[in-house]
Design goal:
alpha+beta, 22% helix, 2 helices, extended
Length: 74
Amino acid sequence: SGVVEEEYRSMLDKNYHQKMLNARQPLTQEEYEQFYQFPYPVDGSSMTISHHHSGRYRLAAIQQHKRIYKTENS
């Protein structure tokens, strides 16, 4: 849960969000299902995740059952 602050609009980056929305591409059902079929390790082993330009933060790796996130610039 969260609380919406009165001045939240001053923190919005409308141009960035509009750019992201305009860059969307339609997917078929098969493409959608394939996109979300990640072979995550379940035994504690490490895995590096390919870099996708889809947002400010990204899942970069999994190490010992922990998800490692990075910002778009790292």
